[in-house]
């Protein structure tokens, strides 16, 4: 969940609006979900909903921020400390990524967000900053620490980060596509761990 969201001070109504809207968006799509429908499901007047969100797009982007956010919200010091252990850094990052991939509450929304990316510029910018850029920054920082401590071969840490996360994203996309057609995904549950093992063997000293 994004670091800048203070769950303790958020009103229960706003939390419920987000939860209900996420369900409706995943069922009816962005266009098929109206503010009126969201308000009715929450059990409040439509006018009351605008006390929390200015429009439907703001609700949608708020939910997207949560799903797109980096799964690895550690401080600079925490990243450095874990990266000094080498492979466990990648295992922990991947574990969080895997949990997001198989989280039933977010899988339908992730599929919808992939569709809406091509139609909403603000959503694309949010995806690039909060998902792509944030993850690359965390990973490249970790890889740089590993290089400094002679745990992995010297190279471009950002390029290695691209290489590492691209496979994770592809597996997540594959799971989404298969589930859309109600096809089994059990064979993919171990792919995340296999990727870490393969990748580590290819970069370690």
Question: Could you please describe the fold and organization of this structure?
Answer:
This protein is an all-alpha fold and 205 residues long. The protein folds into 2 domains: 7-62, Homeodomain-like (Arc Repressor Mutant, subunit A), CATH 1.10.10; 69-203, Orthogonal Bundle (Tetracycline Repressor, domain 2), CATH 1.10.357. It is built from 10 helices and no strands. The protein has helices spanning 12-28, 35-42, 46-49, 56-68, 76-83, 87-101, 104-116, 121-148, 157-180, 191-203. Helix 1 crosses helix 4 and helix 6 runs parallel beside helix 9. It is elongated.
Summary, kept brief:
With 205 residues, this protein is mainly alpha-helical. The chain has two domains: 7-62, Arc Repressor Mutant, subunit A (Orthogonal Bundle), CATH 1.10.10.60; 69-203, Orthogonal Bundle (Tetracycline Repressor, domain 2), CATH 1.10.357.
Based on the structure given, which CATH architecture of the largest domain is correct?
A: Orthogonal Bundle
- Using the coordinates above, name the CATH class of the largest domain: Mainly Alpha
Please, how many helices? 10
Any idea what the radius of gyration is? Answer: 19 Å
> For the terminal residues, how far apart are their CA atoms?
34 Å
**Strand residues, percent:** under 5%
Major pleated sheet:
none
- Structural class determined from secondary elements: mainly alpha
> How many structurally independent domains?
2
Helix content estimate: 55-70%
Residue ranges: pLDDT <50 for 5 or more in a row? 1-7
**H and E string:** HHHHHHHHHH
Give the overall average pLDDT: 89
